[in-house]
Write a structure and sequence with these properties.
The structure holds two protein chains of two kinds.
Chain A: H1 3-23, H2 26-29, E1 31-32, H3 34-37, E2 39-46, H4 49-69, E3 76-81, E4 84-88, H5 95-106, E5 110-114, E6 120-124, H6 126-150, E7 157-161, E8 166-172, H7 177-185, E9 190-200, H8 203-208, E10 218-223, E11 236-241, E12 246-247, E13 251-258, E14 264-270, H9 272-284, E15 290-294, E16 297-300, E17 311-315, H10 320-331, E18 339-347, H11 349-378, H12 381-402, E19 406-407, H13 409-438, H14 443-475, H15 478-512
Parallel strand pairs in A: 1-19
Antiparallel strand pairs in A: 2-8, 2-18, 3-4, 4-6, 5-6, 7-8, 9-11, 9-12, 9-15, 10-11, 13-14, 14-17, 15-16
Chain B: H1 15-36, H2 42-45, E1 47-54, H3 60-66, E2 75-79, E3 86-92, H4 101-117, E4 122-130, H5 132-160, H6 163-186, H7 193-223, H8 229-239, H9 241-261, H10 263-298
Antiparallel strand pairs in B: 1-3, 1-4, 2-3
Helix pairs in contact in B: 1-6, 1-10, 5-6, 5-7, 6-7, 6-10, 7-8, 7-10, 9-10
Classes of the chains: A alpha+beta, B alpha+beta.
Chain lengths: 521, 324
């Protein structure tokens, strides 16, 4: 063996060792997609308009508060759509003050346009709209991730998907789809607000006491009958402060507990900041009702009997399961925007197992065909092809494991195409060697000429396929990307195995009998 | 063992017949597609598919009856082997508004209706619900991906060989795509992402085959300087014939195994590949080079390579000296 040849063999062995190390043990290293393993695949859209609306409403609120604090009395502040609000009735003599305060408090986020007669329209700046939308998606992503992790799903995927506002969630092995979806989707926006009036059976009853109008700092929130500890069965309504004393952001923890009647309830504790606010709020409002509002619905409205520091409880007519799920969603934080489902796929574990078994069996039978043919047609040289194809698959498997790619059915298709390309490259080379030997060359010269002449053809076919794989990856989605990834790396490793490894094998064989005139081909 | 070791069939002589035959097939295919529309599966059209596995053998008829109370169009068919007792139920994209729960309503209705009909114990083994937004998205991206990859390959072949060759290769590829789609339509397969992956795979094969022949043509420019383009191409096709047949044959056998033993999920994929391999091999031998010859006649640049490079398409020929 020449030293040149020795180095080639060493290089090949190193690559093989790396590949094996990368995917061994295969059970841990090779991740199976949901189509093979079973589980739930969801695509959700974040309704980012919600985040804009929240920003617009709270900014309008802040501006109004600040104006009244500084003694600028204005007519009305009315939200227009999700991205703008209007201020009417700014007195002419306070116009300059109004502009100064407005620019100071909301000027960074809103563009101000003046209309006639002391009216102003504030519209979210487009850069802010982009930022708010991105933040809403990023926050939703984090929140969903926490929730999925708390559900105890092994190896979930929570990732941005498609064009900006979509999120992909994959939960292998999850069987209770409805519950998982509910937990992911529930907004879990907790607000504690002081009750001004109620409960009342209708909105009108609450309005009647106030001349038919909701005062600007209050709002009407519906609640379940039980929430008022009333005997009635219908819905009830509360008139509460618009600004929440405590929100889900002040939470430190939430866990299942029991209420005074031993019914399932959710106990929560507040963080330092929340506890400060809570003790102040409760101390100032002893004897009044505190509405515990979850996702815009009053769950209960207990009377404050004394100062409370950092503990509270949400009771209602909950089941044990609901209490657990609610604690989970509260712990993971509120979603910044609501979600809608765009796509859902569930694959039962047995169906997944069936398709793996069938796919593997079919691949083995196919590989068997190829093996038989290559040995029958190319005799001993057929072993070269088989070795280089097997090595190709090994390297590809190692690479897929290394980059953490997920095996799916289209991925298996990529493997099959890789086998096809491997067979093709070998056949190209062998046929050329035969041709060269037919024209009277010695075995050594024929092998050299065969590899040399076919190399550029192999390069051409592979580059063309690589280009196509790259475009598929760039423009394709989900499964098509999986296919493109497998194909791309399969092609790269095929150039190595079909050209370099196979040639080294020939050289190894020929190095033992350099004068050979014939090859078993 | 040798197949076609000294093959000398006159393929190029038949090129006009082949082009006419293919044109006919492509037109028939397009008519077939135009008349029935592309059978978009739920990946692209949106909709709901539920697969139920019954404990006892249950006929499609019984299941269909159980679903009578659900309004609208429904498809009920046996899924997989008869012994598996699995039934696939498909609802088209109904008035689903994508608002949270309503997307899953179809699937739940199906399960509820079958349960209410009391026709035996079952469990849902898979559910797929695709909203209209996703379906459109996938359609758009699938088309982009396919077009971009075909364009990329065209540019590469035009750069490495010459434009007429690139056009020949792409015509052959499009031919394969249309023929495959038409056959799929004819046999009632629906387009899914897996089938798109299969179609992309066969375009890969087809282009591959074509490049191998073109490479050989280019190599023959040197040794067959005086010969006509027809005979140069014909020689190249014959010289690579055993390789073409062997590669196509082994791939066909592997995919046949996938078709027979791969189970329901892989069946559509494998079928597409089988059709594509046959079409791809034919188009490589008969169509790609025939069109390249036809278009080369109209090009002003002579095919003989001795002259120095005159156009971008000629440039790669210089590297042939490596082979000398």
């Amino acid at each position: 063996m020449t030293s040149n040849l020795r180095w080639k063999v060493i290089a090949i062995l190193v690559v093989v060792a790396l590949a094996v190390a990368a995917f061994y043990p295969p059970k841990d290293k090779v991740k199976l997609g949901l189509d093979l393993k079973g589980g739930v695949h969801l695509v959700l859209r974040v309704q980012t308009d919600d985040a804009l609306k929240l920003e617009t409403e709270t900014s309008a609120e802040r501006l109004r508060d600040e104006l009244s604090r500084q003694g600028v009395s204005i007519g009305a502040v009315t939200p227009q759509d999700v991205r703008s609000f209007r201020v009417d009735g700014v007195p002419g003599d306070r116009d300059a003050d109004f502009r100064r305060i407005a620019d100071e408090w909301v000027g960074q986020v809103f563009d101000r346009a003046s209309g006639v007669g002391g009216s102003y329209t504030f519209t979210l700046k487009s850069a802010q709209i982009t930022r708010l939308r991105q933040e809403a998606v990023a926050q939703a992503l984090q929140t969903i991730e926490r929730r999925v992790n708390e559900l105890g799903v092994a190896e979930p995927i929570v990732a941005p998907h498609g064009d900006g506002d979509q999120i992909l969630v994959q939960m292998p092995g999850v069987t209770d789809v409805a519950r998982a979806k509910e937990i992911i989707r529930s907004t879990a926006l907790l607000e504690l607000k002081i009750v001004e009036d109620g409960p009342a059976p209708t909105r009108e009853a609450l309005l009647a006491a106030r001349g038919g109008q909701v005062p600007p700092d209050l709002e009407i929130v519906p609640g379940a009958a039980e929430a008022g500890n009333a005997q009635g069965t219908g819905p009830v309504y509360y008139l509460v402060k618009r600004v929440a004393g405590i929100t889900g952001r002040d939470l430190r923890n939430a866990r299942p507990s029991l209420d005074e009647n031993n019914q399932p309830a959710v106990g929560f504790s507040l963080n330092q900041q929340g506890a400060d606010k809570f003790s102040q709020l409760t101390a100032q409002n002893i004897g009044r009702q505190l509405a515990i509002i979850l996702d815009g619905r009053v769950q209960s409205a207990p009377t404050i009997e004394g100062r409370i520091y950092d503990q509270g409880r949400i009771s209602g007519s909950f089941t044990q399961q609901e209490v657990q799920d609610l604690s989970l969603t509260l712990r993971s934080g509120a979603l910044p925007a609501s979600l809608t489902y765009l796509e859902e796929r569930t694959v039962g574990p047995s169906l997944g197992a069936d398709s793996i078994r069938a796919g593997v069996m079919a691949s083995l039978i196919g590989l068997g065909f190829v093996t038989l043919f290559m040995l029958a047609y190319y005799k001993l040289t057929g072993f070269n092809a088989l070795l280089s194809i097997s090595l190709n698959l090994l390297i590809l498997l190692g690479f897929m494991a290394y980059i953490g790619a997920v095996m799916t059915l289209p991925g298996i298709a990529g493997f099959i195409l890789t086998i096809g390309m491997g067979v093709d490259s070998n056949v190209l080379i062998f046929e050329r060697i035969k041709e060269e030997m037919g024209s009277g060359k010695s075995a050594r010269a024929a092998v050299a000429a065969g590899f040399d002449r076919v190399f550029l053809t192999i390069l051409d076919t592979h580059v063309a396929s690589l280009i196509s794989a790259a475009f598929l990856f760039q423009f394709g989605t989900g499964p098509i990307r999986g296919f493109a990834t497998t194909l791309f790396f399969g092609l790269l490793s095929n150039v190595f195995t079909a050209v370099f490894v196979s040639r080294t094998l020939f050289e190894l064989i020929l190095s033992r009998r350099p004068q050979a005139a014939k090859l078993s081909i | 063992m040798d197949l076609f070791s000294n093959a000398n069939y006159n393929f190029t002589k038949w090129r006009w017949h082949a082009i006419a035959f293919s044109a006919l097939i492509v037109v028939l295919g397009l008519v077939q597609i135009a008349r029935n529309g592309l059978p978009l599966g739920i990946d692209f059209s949106g909709g709901t598919i539920v697969v139920l596995k019954f404990q006892q053998p249950t006929s499609e008829e019984v299941v269909r009856k159980a679903l009578d109370r659900i309004p609208g169009e429904k498809v009920v068919q046996q899924y997989g082997a008869a012994s598996a007792n699995e039934v696939l139920i498909r609802l088209p994209q109904a008035q689903a508004t994508e608002q949270g729960t309503s997307l899953e309503q179809g699937a739940r209705q199906v399960v509820d209706a079958v349960r209410a009909a009391n026709i035996g114990a079952f469990e849902p083994i898979s559910t797929e619900i695709v909203g209209p937004v996703i379906g459109k998205d996938l359609q758009r991206k699938g088309v982009y991906a396919t077009l971009a990859s075909i364009l990329g390959i065209t540019l590469y072949i035009a750069f490495r060989f010459r434009l007429s060759f690139a056009v020949g290769a792409i015509a052959a590829t499009l031919h394969d795509v249309i023929v495959t789609l038409a056959v799929l339509t004819f046999f009632g397969y629906e387009l899914s992402l897996n089938i798109i992956a299969a179609i992309l795979t066969i375009t890969g094969y087809s282009v591959n085959d074509t490049i191998v022949i073109f490479d050989r043509v280019r190599e023959n420019f040197r040794t067959m300087r005086g010969a006509s383009l027809e005979s140069q191409v014909n020689t190249a096709v014959n010289q690579t014939l055993s390789r073409t047949i062997i590669t196509a044959g082994t791939t066909f056998l592997s995919v046949l195994a996938l078709y027979i033993f791969g189970g329901e999920v892989l069946e559509g994929f494998a079928f597409t590949m089988l059709v594509g391999i046959i079409s791809g091999t034919y188009s490589t031998v008969f169509i790609a080079s025939a069109i390249a010859i036809m278009l080369s006649k109209n090009e002003t640049t002579p095919v003989a390579p001795a002259a120095p490079a005159r156009a971008a398409g000629d440039r790669p020929r210089r590297r042939e000296r490596r082979n000398a």
